[in-house]
Amino acid sequence: MKYILTIFIFFFFINLVPAQGIRGTIKTSKGEVLPYAAIVVKGTSSGAITNSEGRYEVPLKPGKYAVVFQYLGFQAQEKAVEIGSDWQTVDVTMEEQAFRLQEVQAREGKEDPAYSIMRRAIAKARYHELQVMSYTAKAYTKTTFTITDLPMQFMYRKQLKEAEKEGFKIGVPMLYESVSEVTFKQPNTYRYRLMATRNSMGDNISVSDYFLTSFYRPEVNNAVSPLSPKAFAYYKFEYQGTFSERGIDVSKIQVNPRAYGEGVFRGTIFIIENSWAIHSLQLETRNPLGFDIKIRQVYSPVQNVWLPVNQRYNLDGKIMGAAGNAQFIISQTFNSLKVNPAFVEDVKIVDEKFEKPAVSLSNKDIKGQKLEDKIAKQKEYSTKDFKKLLKEYEKQEYQAKKERKEEVEVSRNDSTVIDSLAGKRSNAFWDSLRTVPLTSAERISYVKRDSLKIVRKIEVQKDSTKAVRDSTKKNRSSKTFKPGQLISGNTWNFTNRTALTWDSPLQKIYYNTVEGYTFDMGLRLRYFLRKPERDSTRRRVVNKPTPDLTIGGAGRYEFGMKRLIGTGSIGYTYKGTSIGIMGGRWVNQFNPNEPISPFLNSVTSLLFEKNYAKLYQRDFLRLGISARPFENRINVSGSLEYAERTELANYKENLKPWIDWNQFSYTPNRPTNAELGSGAFPVNQALTLNLAVSGKLAATRYRIRNGRRVASRNNSPELTLNYRKGVPFNSGNTEVSDVDYDFVQAGLSHSFETGIRSRLSYNVSAGGFLNDKTVFFPDFKHFQGNEFFLQQGDPTSIFRMLPYYQYSTGKRFVEGHVLMEYRKFLITQLTLVRLTGLKENLFVHYLGTPNSKNYTEVGYALDGLIPGIFPFFRVEVISQWQDWQYQKLGFRIGTTLKFR
């Protein structure tokens, strides 16, 4: 009986609403609801957005208020309301906005007025971005995510039924809400206090990044903003009229990309005359995965600064056969806003193409001048002069930071505090804070979730003893050995500092003509030297850096050679620095970078009678160390190895593949080489010192999250240097080390955007043997060749048709790779083709050695061969050249996936 009473009380109270305010529905004059319209209460920090049903609610204290209703393309309305002790219904009917055309019209041969408006808006974009020094805002966010289709559902029907018990169902939205207090300080510091969080999938607390997209920045999520300095290279603008609203004139500008697709927007942006700030916008783009993204923002004045009070993002698309859509809404109410004193006074911006400013500034007039002093004296600037003035201001701010010894490399500084009651708020609390009312479907999803929670609670109370017993049994089982784990592999966490991992031999079964079938297995014990700490304020609970010691071994059984080989190792790691010792017997490819993976070589050997991998035996002991000093900008590594190298042959003659091809046959395990004739070598001993350093040529930028520094991706050029020494060594009359050589190599690589969705990548290197007194084939410089129709790995630095060891050298070499990715080239000139996400590539690979005859490959590729399903596949056509003479044509199916 008490459980029935609990459920009754629960359903009674979820319908209670807080004290007083206004609520209603916003419609057009035709009776159509207006979803996501903005409601702003003047003089307060209160506001709201209508939901998809056009309904809104704004809780307010008793008193008199002026409420503004806004919607893109409709006339804003202001209503006076007086709130007592109850809710008032204020329904609004909005009229479509009436636009008037400026006196200067776009005539044949004349420039569209939109271009003059946009030149001035672009000139002031950075001004508006820097205008606010700090603020505090209350941010309400609502995210819904819906899986609309899954391929081959019959294969996991059981799992889907289990997921339905937790609230997941195909076609039913998953809902997440949060209310946060956000504090911002220029240039990049955000402080969050998560006040409340709720989702339809369970009770777990999830911290969402504060998502504030600024179109004043040159790029918005890797797409060119219409207010970017380079916008005219990507967009055409069309003036569509002006309307008046609350004493200001607003111009409607149609944004038309020169070529729509990933990296550009299309839609409408509204610009306020004279201040050239954004009034509102409605734009759409497409992301690299082929998802369509629609963005809508509405701005409102706060202390004469126009700020986004509500934003809406819709995402829709398909990947690998799974289709879905998502919606993200953020409603913000600003308070405690502080305006930068240098940007208090507004200035007049003139388009020098049509009107000369009263005073023109030279570089000498701008250099060293303070912005606030200059604006106080001069109120009118050309677009060109104003841009230069803002650049000088930012230079001065940067220098002042350095003098104050502030971190100039920090791109963003975030911290999050989660309120202890964030996940326990009542329905009444949510109704008082929620600025976007729930739809009927969303309310039902919460009712179902809360009903399930009550039922689960009752079931637990009925048999709590069993639940505790099962939980204890489960925890014990994670540390208990089971025979089946020898087949599947497993990790046993004995304590929070000790873990043992077993790699099953069934996970790595390969075949080659030297060893026959092989089973690889491994066992590793990892011990943390102090108790691991966790950073639970991030969206994922992650371990903080903790020193650890790893002891392990790897074994391989070779069925062809009927023997077991293996290695053992011990290593210490902490904060990017590692040191270790490893030794044993193993079989390796001559090229340590493994140009063909063991898996792919197994496929070619068994199905195509092509044994591309060439192997030798290594009995070795190696000491290695690596570190990342200078805050991850530079990587340093070194090793000292003593090894006995032995040539191996195919384990037997007359090997038979699974498929016997008349035109193919296995080759001996002895690489063909233009420099030596063959890769044969005697058994030898080698003491080898290997030193390498790589570094980015520009400083690394960082993002700070709750005091923890995280390096951002450094896209600057990378320089690599390598020195390898074959150390000769005699003990009496016995040669302990047979090698004697000095090898040096330098390389430079970089990848950078040349435009939207266009990229140039290159990798060049050169080097040679300064001393080549005694060099064996395993010591040669080997290159990343390929002889199979499937091309895998990095498309920039791998040859497509180069024989694996034909041009390996013990002398000198020059190697170069260039890959150009085009957004628009040949078939991608067609919009429908471009919208699929297909890219066109051109690439050139060059190798110069004493015997390579200026080996060159020139190729063309279609990347993203099956958009939305297998976007990581491409098809290539390659021409091969030597001494600038055409040799042959080849075709490849490529993928960036690396098959092990």
Question: Helices, strands, pairings?
Answer:
Blueprint: H1 2-13, E1 21-28, E2 38-41, E3 47-49, E4 55-59, E5 63-71, E6 74-83, E7 87-89, E8 92-94, H2 113-123, H3 125-130, E9 132-149, H4 157-165, E10 174-185, E11 189-199, E12 219-220, E13 223-224, E14 235-245, E15 248-257, E16 266-272, E17 278-286, E18 292-302, E19 305-319, E20 322-339, E21 348-350, H5 363-366, H6 371-377, E22 380-382, H7 383-403, E23 410-418, H8 427-433, H9 440-462, H10 464-477, H11 485-488, E24 490-493, E25 498-503, E26 509-512, E27 516-528, E28 534-535, E29 542-543, E30 548-558, E31 563-574, E32 577-589, H12 598-607, E33 615-627, E34 634-647, E35 672-673, E36 677-678, E37 684-696, E38 702-705, E39 708-711, E40 718-727, E41 729-731, E42 734-737, E43 740-755, E44 758-774, E45 790-792, E46 812-822, H13 831-834, E47 839-848, E48 855-863, E49 873-882, E50 885-895
Parallel strand pairs: 1-7, 1-8, 11-23, 21-22, 23-38, 45-50
Antiparallel strand pairs: 1-4, 2-3, 2-5, 5-6, 9-10, 9-20, 10-11, 12-13, 14-15, 15-16, 16-17, 17-18, 18-19, 19-20, 24-25, 25-27, 26-27, 27-30, 28-29, 30-31, 31-32, 32-33, 33-34, 34-37, 35-36, 37-40, 38-39, 40-43, 41-42, 43-44, 44-46, 46-47, 47-48, 48-49, 49-50
Helix pairs in contact: 1-9, 2-7
